[in-house]
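Teaching assistant here, posting this on the class forum so everyone can see the example we discussed in section. The complex has two components, and the goal was to see what a joint structure prediction looks like when all of them are supplied at once.
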Amino acid sequence: MSVSGFRMAAMVAPALGALAMGAGAIAAQGGAPDTWWYPGSGKTFAASQDYPNAQGTLRVQVEGGAVKTRGHAFFEPLGANGRACVTCHQPADAMSLSAATAQQRWTASNGHDPLFAAIDGSNCPILPQDQRASHSLLLERGLFRVQLPWPMTAWNGRPVTPDFDIEVVRDPNGCNSAPGYGPKAGNISVYRRPRPVANMKYLLAVGFVFDPKQGFALPLSPEDGRMMSGNIMADNRAGTLRIQMQDAAHGHLQAGKPLTDAQVRQITDFEMRVFTAQQTDAHGNDLSSMGANGGPNHLRVSAPGALGAIGTPVWSEFAAWEKLSPEQAATLTPKQLEFRKSVARGARVFREKMFLITDSAGINSRIGFGNPVRNSCVFCHNMSQMGNDVAPGQVDLGTTTMPFADSMPDLPLFRITCRGRPHPHYGRVIYTMDPGFAMTSGKCADVGKITLQSMRGLSARAPFFSNGLARDLRGIVDYYDRRYSIGYTEQEKQDLVNLMSVL
Amino acid sequence: MLRSVLTLAALAAPLSAAAADTGSLLRFITCPVYRDADSGKKSGCWLAEDPATGIRYDVSLSPHKPDWNYAVLVEGRTTAQPETPCGAPVLDAVRTSRLYDIPCTRHILPAEGYPGRRFVLPRRNPQPTSVPAPSFAGPFVDRSFTVYFEFGNDFLVYQYSDWLIQQAYYWMLSAKPKKLIITGFAASAPETVSGRVMAEPADLALQRAQTVATTMARLLPGIAIETRADPSTTGTSDAEADGIPGQAQRRVEIRAVL
């Protein structure tokens, strides 16, 4: 498929989409409602929208009311491939994109949707673009190709001299060794999930002035002088929304020129107003009922950046369900009642189940918590309402790096050799599928570090972790259980899954 | 039951010879051992045996904890504190500096009835941004602040170095100095510890100064900063070094010039 082919598909698709949405209840192939937002559809983005998913209903709210999307920079195609920001940040997918949605789009468009643009919606542009197998990473793992400069540049554009060498060990897709690709050609391709653009006030919040994981005060925005949280991108290569947008416009939309100031302001305004969370569970329960505070409205009205340990405990939104009155319980079916109790237990397991965290840079080094250190999920996922880190920074859970990562033979594998001091946990030679933050900092000690994931709207946007390692919520729990030998009981695992399904 | 018996035994036992000699300064290098005590978050114990005496100490109160894969330089003072938390005589104040060039075989002991210590926020706990900065009344005069580091390292120690910097920052918000003179120090004079000659590289002094300068530039954008280095192994009597001479040498001084 050529770029012009994608443009054609982009022109046809909005018209079809507008017709379909105008018909009310719409069925895409497979009978599921067509919730896809086409670039340039011109629809109004309602102030509150509900989208069904397997675990219930996701709600998307916009503070300040509905948004007219005609001519809006978030919704209009801005580049050569016909994509808009909304292409990969779909409301039904909690402003991210699930692998299931990608599969639906492939089927519905015969692979012609701009989503599958060769630049990054394909395993590599050198592959035959009309074949499904050439897009397997997006279709199976929800991954987009991210081509990064080698050697790297910092978030402010300054060149960085890395303290490590990088070699390609495995390149199943060609984008790290074919002509024009790979470290010898001055670039490295990694594959990552799109991060949700919602609940941004929490992701941009700065709870402390220090980044204890890097051992400095937080860096300052070149735009407004404020401290930058570092929570925007997986590798923290963009410290502000403006930098991220320009990066995305060039790398994902194939925009021929930078976004204008007006476009940046318009997108920023929209992203800062969008909140999303699961609103009803699979049993039809309202997650903000019987004393609970689920759903996006609570996110919208709460103040960001609060440390749960000294204020509102993380996921205490569901604490009221620990002790439902007999009268309340009588209004629920046994399954509904047990589900609510399970969610409340899951919140406690999240906060209180202690385990030994070992050999994880950003936790066990260089910061002095000790290796190992005993703590729970809330050690890092500590911000009230949101579960991201009040003291932001990047952490290596091992999801991309051997020996901790699961086998993912469809991803490239790199050999990192530290030139100076060896990595404190991996040693001098490291095998990784994505160096993560090291591709921004240039430091061997940062290999495998990834920015913490947002925990809201999870039911709408599988798979999980930056490289899609966990296919579902249970996969997240199982990974942690293996990685840190936690020893969750089957009940605890299910409680955690149920908790995450309602966030 | 076992836990109760052990606890009672520990309470009844006479203080060890080391603990009875309270206030003595110890300095040794060893491989740390982790005791998997569980009284909630961060409650595990760190133990370190002085090779000269064969006494295993509880070094858990160090602000910067060991990594079980590497040796530590232990610097601490003996106490008469009960051994009940971790089953070993307690060093307090104490520092454990990770020595990444000395690998260790990781070893974990079971709790064996010892509870560890329930986590409490340390005194040197940086305040979140939601807490308003305290204001200081003038008149102000030039003032110095000191920040401390691990041996061989320029990394800001969590809930120690960062807290010290935050105190300086709070004062500077009121005093509004025109310039900061930031001087890094290094303990470069060789000393033999546990049979190993220990000396910090001289250029670490400047690295430490630059680390603190980077942070101060971010906290006080636009302020003039001059960095200096003094690798000549000098100490300070500042109380925040907790009476540990080695700690007093590994420092950065921030001179606020009005």
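For the discussion questions: The first helix of chain A runs from residue 3 to 22. Residues 3-142+149-154+193-274 of chain A form one domain. Think about how each of these relates to the inputs above.
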